[in-house]
Amino acid sequence: MNALRNYLDKIKPNFEEGGKYQALRSVFDGFETFLFVPNATSKTGTHIHDAIDSKRIMSLVVIALIPALLFGMYNVGYQHFTHTGAEGGFVEMFVYGFLAVLPKIIVSYVVGLGIEFVVAQWKKEEIQEGFLVSGMLIPMIVPIECPLWMLAVATAFSVIFAKEVFGGTGMNIFNPALITRAFLFFAYPVKMSGDAVWVAKDSIFGLGNTVDGLTAATPLGQAATNVPVDASLTDMVIGLIPGSIGETSVIAIAIGAIILLWTGVASWKTMLSVFVGGAVMAGIFNASGMDSAMAQMPWYEHLCVGGFCFGAVFMATDPVTSSRTENGKFVYGLLIGAMAIIIRVMNPGYPEGMMLAILLMNIFAPLIDYVVVQNNISRRAKRALSNQ
Amino acid sequence: MGNLFSAKNKEVFSTPISMNNPVTIQVLGICSALAVTSKLEPAIVMGLSVTIITAFANVVISLLRKTVPNRIRIIVQLVVVAALVTIVSELLKAFAYDVSVQLSVYVGLIITNCILMGRLEAFAMANGPWESCLDGIGNGLGYAKVLVITAFFRELLGSGTLFNVNILNYDTIKSLGYVNNGLMLMPPMALIIVACLIWYQRAKHKELQEK
């Protein structure tokens, strides 16, 4: 550690004003503060500092994402090997999945961080750390067959129009990773939905088979078209079903959720109320007697399939775009869960409602906060008056 | 009236096309700019229709401006615009039926276009007919310019065509994995393109930026 610190101190003058590489100042600063907590403090005003800064919080979220990512890689291989009938054990499946997913992660980070670096340099600001998490989330919420250039276009769109135009990290109204997915979903629906995109079709470095015209629908896709769902509940919980790369495994996501809750990065109130809202709304549809596979899907399956868990744990709890008041978090979460199930059941065009539900509630989060704060003010005002 | 093409008249004509554009600076006429720009052809027809109607309405109101009682001026303006819109709409149906079907209600809705009422109120009521005519054409062309730029990007990237002529939909391009962007055909993307035009213009001209 000390050697690294000394090395950074040695090369630092090159990057300061007037140094050899001053054009890369913000890049250097970004890496330095990523590796070491900066010891600079604010010079004016009174501040309360948390023990960890936002770069460390972002790193924790990335760590929490790793179980879901690793399982996603394995599942990509597993789905490919079972659907193409290729021979292979656990290692082959994982290596295949790793090689299939890695380019997506690289593209997402290179495009997103590239834009952030350029903007930071241009506005003479520090590089903001928000993309550390978004860059990891983006490859995890797209189908494996999503082409890389689409991912690059969508990432660029979302970093520029969902984040930088609002003022960068911490100022965005919408979750940038979800905007990426929404852009892909509406711009290239053929590559983002249906039954032809969820299983990798090509062999990579001799691993697996190349198969044309391979189709495999997700459980949600089957329910939306009233085809019997062929995945068992065990498969859904373990995650051995077709789906977006990181979203299938309930167990892997649960490990991430425990890390987020244990470190206090995510709010248990938001997370819990999303699940409660979804379960209650699914129960209402079960009891309503509506005659569609989606409405009759048991509530616990609704929570296990698609992006529900992933959205609830990693997307809804985003501290920037969710409600910030404690009571507001309950309302925000309940409405996300309920809205996700309503969109799934009532709109056959969008089998997955989680993305749209979270984006919709992102818009309402400030309103929820406003109402909670105003309620508190008027309650206290009333109490003050009645005590006189 | 003085010189027909005096410096002042040239300015009346040219500022709405660039520095005082009705769409990008005054943010008027956005509704139809989003609705008719998914293809170039209807966008151009719409732009020309608005140009013609604004120019004639400006001239007529400018001629009437001293005789119209102030209290009922809005009604008079509406009658003039409604008559012109009906004429243009009938002409389109007679000579460009396909385009008029694509434009559907938006030709009729030119009557509610904020640019028209804005120019009548702000310019024609206070200026002579020739200046008003130039102002109307200038504002109409300024509006048409934004429509055409927006429609160019939306049609090229959304449908892969320009004026319905195939540009990107060839097998060689498709085989590289290119897919047309469906979001471009939806109104939200038109809003983002118009926003980009505003962004570009304000970034280029420092005097347009608020402190």
Main attributes of the structure:
heterodimer; A: 388 residues; mainly alpha; 2 domains; B: 211 residues; two-stranded antiparallel sheet; globular
Explain what the structure shows.
The complex is a heterodimer of chains A (388) and B (211). Chain A is built from 17 helices and no strands. Chain A is an all-alpha fold and 388 residues long. Chain B has helices at residues 7-14, 30-35, 40-64, 73-95, 97-103, 105-108, 114-124, 129-159, 171-175, 187-204, and strands at 161-162, 165-166. The longest helix of chain B is centred in the C-terminal third of the chain and has 31 residues, at 129-159. In chain B, helix 1 (7-14) packs parallel to helix 8, helix 3 runs antiparallel to helix 8 (129-159) and helix 8 crosses helix 10. A two-stranded antiparallel ribbon of chain B has the order 1-2. Classes of the chains: A mainly alpha (388), B mainly alpha (211). The A-B interface holds A 147, 149-150, 153, 161, 183, 186-191 and B 177, 179, 181-184, 186, 192.
Low-confidence stretches of chain B: none
Work out the radius of gyration of chain B.
19 Å
The number of strands of chain A is 0
Q: Strand sequence of the main sheet of chain B, in spatial order?
A: 1-2
Task: Let me know the average pLDDT of chain A.
Answer: 85
Largest sheet of chain B: 2 strands, antiparallel
Shape of chain B: globular
Number of strands of chain B: 2
Terminal CA distance of chain A reads 62 Å
| Oligomeric organization of the protein chains | heterodimer
Percent range for helical residues of chain A? 55-70%
Q: Could you say which overall geometry of chain A the principal axes of the C-alpha atoms support?
A: globular
Percent of residues in β-strands of chain B: under 5%
